[in-house]
Amino acid sequence: MPHAHILGIESSCDETGAAVVRSGEKILSNVVFSQIATHQPYGGVVPELASREHLRAIVPVVRKALADADQTYQTLDALAVTQGPGLAGALLVGISYAKALAFALHKPLIAVNHLEGHIHAVLLEERQKGNHELNFPVLALVVSGGHTHLYSAEQKGESWSYRNIGHTRDDAAGEAFDKVAKLLGLGYPGGPIIDRLAPHGDPSAVKFATAQIKHRDRRDRQKENKAQPRFDFSYSGIKTEVLRYVEANGLKDTIEERRRRLSAIAKPKLEDYLAACDRETLNLLASFQRSVVEDLVAKTLAAASANEAATLFVTGGVAANNELRQRFESEAGQDGLPVFFPSRPLSTDNAAMIAAAAYPKWLSKDFAPMDFSAEASLPLRQL
Ligand code: KG4
Ligand code: ZN
After folding, report:
1. What ligand has the least distance to the C-alpha of 197?
2. Is the Cβ atom of 318 under 6 angstroms away from ligand 1?
3. 124 neighbors 24 (Cβ within 8 angstroms)
């Protein structure tokens, strides 16, 4: 197979990323500039601020990715950029810059779906470890701040295609982590904070009726058939349950106090968070995480079984979660299903996954026309 050095660019949300990956299997550099500090005071991503920060960061981030990889613009074989899904203004920064570079350098430009990138993060790292054997069908759970999607993935020749077999009806799992952390005065992003605090609470203290889906999604009614059941998720209900718990147990004042205390510390450490949380809050967090993790694992394994999956990928920001990884490993292991995760730096948004997903497209000369644009809700190609 011919080798290719591909520069990937990612700017779909609040991370500006650039990376050089060789032939979808070797990371030569992976630079991520995180905007967390910019969005933290607002408790979530502010789209206009995200675009502005991408504009500021994109040139130095790309230059650093080339320097770290010992490459120049001339030694690259192609450029790849995230087309969507994501924030339109943020995506446009990466796309405009990648187009300008490709045009000036006379190099091919490849448009990549962000969700396909998350799936290829797993493939990239497995190949990098020397694991080239993969049993199909592959079931991939992409679980992040914007998505909770299940795909059946197949490879035909060099090209990959995906069939969606489930998605969230409302909030994504990562979004629920972020909203619950904000609600409890813990700051942004919520996932990593709750991940570290949950082991200090009792996960059986609060019972949640997580993710009960009462209505079928009208959008899916035509697609649905009995031979292919869907495995949908729902995480806005549990966020409301946490809010009700807060109100019913009179936690508002302690939350305000915690918010003040933590916002006075530039970079709170685990001890600072622990000192600011009473037992009841730690129990609530542990119970919330347990409930979301159990739901994700149960539905994904049910989907794996219904689709006779031979391999399971769990990827996206929430795949960094310790309890989620442990539960998947032990429960998929019991079913004899091999489960693969990206390393933690490759679970959250990065450009190495974009450069890796671009390699099969480079092989099949699937290049983007110069007039392509950002697509905020870009779906993954169907089988
Ligand atoms: O993949 P990602 O970087 O961006 C999107 O494509 O959305 O995922 C970010 C999301 C955020 O919601 C964040 O709270 C969550 O992933 N996250 C985690 C952890 N690390 C990041 N959720 C649970 N546990 C973690 N350790
Ligand atoms: Zn992502």
Report:
1. 1
2. yes
3. yes
